[in-house]
């Protein structure tokens, strides 16, 4: 048994790591008891990504009531136990409030300056220089008040200038002091590649600082909750973009941009920031009441300013106005797109003929999302739209759309099916005849396609559809295979192949 290839393969660290990464901590705790080779790899997986409570409890018991702290003084043997695992920690996650005395105890008792020498990622840490290592590349700051954010920005400026990914999650409008600290920090973090923060943090000064970052590849700015406002409400002024203070070659490495601006402002901002023509993914959301002309103008600007664009997401958050697909003439120029998402755009009076011109010029799409931000009958597509999309988009792998499942299914028994579709997400819609819907979808979907519905619909009649569709698809595949075999027996393989 020892000479068989299987045991030898399971002793290779690379293979063991891949296997253990698919297992939970409980299973890996058992794997660590098998042998020394397994133990090293299993423990490395367990302690690679760890919660701060689990890590610090190696030293001494922690209190349960916030703020969290040690329940006794640390002793020398506590550090022996901690040292065995501290080298394995690469990702450290904080949840809850921690007592400042805990970090003082760690600072006084530690045996090395670098408490966690291989730490690379921090999630939600309190502001403390104890974890501010040059090796940290990813930093996510969440649930911080303003003073904590200012403290963290000062720490980054002094000790973490090599951070590559910075995320700030906070919905409260920032003060001038916080924005000034942010600008000062950005001027020193030249290695920054990905930046994500609330849209309220973007003004003339911070945007100039973003534009000067030589390695910035992704900038994402959004607010989860915001009251729709009129044009001109942004903190980013158009005058600043054409001023001499704005870099002549802004965002030299920018590949992905997600931002919230009204469409008229975006039409000026996008050409200015994509001078280097590096942008490949664009997510644009407007909180204003946008017109059809504004949308068409924006698409034309994007098409001219971003010739290499591959992923495009345009969203309107108002439902008062209606913008039909037939008015989006500019979008048909995006022949290089592989992913398209349109939010709050209605199909039009005739769904099939409204979709066809939109899709004919986008035959290379691999992902399509036609969604609505608010439940409204205006944004529901007829079931026949699925057949229209399948007949045009031959390379489509992912589709998200809300169809009117309560209406009658198309009578065509032989619609053109999807060839490569891997996932179909159907938005919230009532359903009255689940069997009829399942039969129709089974004629369109290929084997292995995953059918998804919103979570709150999984226990409704949609569960019947999810159960029956893969069975019907498999039955159709078997029926076609049986018919082919009978044809081969009757007429010969050559005739059946033709």
From TrEMBL:
It comes from the Eukaryota. This is Uncharacterized protein. It comes from Pleurotus cornucopiae. The lineage of its organism: Eukaryota, Fungi, Dikarya, Basidiomycota, Agaricomycotina.
């Amino acid at each position: 048994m020892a000479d068989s290839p299987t045991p030898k393969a399971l002793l290779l660290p690379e293979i063991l790591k891949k296997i253990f990464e698919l297992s939970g901590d409980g299973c890996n705790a058992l794997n660590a008891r098998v042998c020394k080779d397994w133990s090293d790899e299993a423990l490395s997986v367990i302690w690679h990504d760890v919660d701060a409570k689990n890590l610090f409890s190696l030293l001494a018991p922690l209190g349960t009531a916030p703020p969290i702290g040690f329940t006794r003084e640390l002793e020398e043997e506590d550090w022996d136990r901690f040292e065995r695992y501290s080298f394995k920690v690469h990702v450290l996650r904080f949840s809850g409030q921690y007592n400042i005395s805990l970090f003082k105890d760690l600072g006084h008792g530690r045996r090395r300056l670098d408490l966690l020498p291989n730490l690379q990622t921090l999630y939600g840490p309190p502001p403390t220089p104890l974890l501010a290592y040059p090796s940290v590349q990813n930093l996510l700051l969440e649930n911080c008040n303003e003073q904590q954010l200012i403290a963290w920005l000062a720490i980054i400026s002094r000790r973490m200038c090599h951070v590559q990914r910075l995320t700030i999650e906070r919905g409260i409008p920032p003060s001038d002091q916080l924005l000034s600290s942010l600008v000062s920090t950005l001027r020193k973090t030249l290695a920054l590649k990905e930046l994500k923060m609330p849209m309220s943090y973007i003004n003339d000064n911070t945007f100039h600082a973003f534009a000067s970052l030589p390695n910035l590849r992704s900038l994402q700015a959004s607010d989860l909750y915001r009251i729709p406002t009129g044009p001109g409400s942004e903190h980013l002024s158009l005058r600043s973009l054409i001023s001499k203070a704005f870099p002549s070659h802004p965002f030299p490495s920018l590949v992905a941009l997600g931002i919230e601006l009204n469409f008229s402002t975006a039409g000026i901002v996008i050409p200015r920031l994509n001078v280097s023509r590096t942008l490949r993914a664009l997510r644009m959301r407007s909180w204003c009441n946008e017109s059809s002309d504004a949308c068409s103008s924006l698409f034309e600007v994007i098409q001219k300013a971003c010739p290499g664009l591959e992923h495009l997401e345009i969203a309107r958050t108002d439902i008062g106005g209606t913008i039909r697909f037939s008015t989006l003439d500019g979008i048909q120029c995006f022949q290089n797109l592989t992913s398209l998402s349109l939010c709050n755009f209605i199909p039009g009076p005739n769904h099939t003929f409204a979709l066809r011109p939109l899709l004919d010029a986008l035959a290379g799409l691999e992902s399509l999302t036609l969604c609505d931000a608010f439940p409204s009958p205006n944004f529901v597509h007829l079931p026949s739209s699925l057949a229209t999309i399948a007949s045009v988009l031959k390379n489509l792998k992912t589709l998200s759309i809300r169809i009117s499942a309560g209406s009658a299914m198309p009578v065509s028994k032989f619609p053109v099916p999807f060839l490569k579709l891997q996932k179909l997400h159907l938005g919230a819609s009532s359903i009255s005849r689940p069997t009829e819907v399942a039969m129709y979808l089974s004629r369109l979907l290929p084997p292995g396609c995953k059918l998804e519905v919103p979570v709150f619909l999984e226990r409704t009649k949609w569960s019947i559809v999810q159960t029956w569709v893969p069975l019907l698809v498999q039955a159709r595949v078997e029926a076609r295979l049986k018919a082919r075999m009978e044809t081969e027996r009757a007429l010969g393989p050559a005739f059946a192949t033709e």
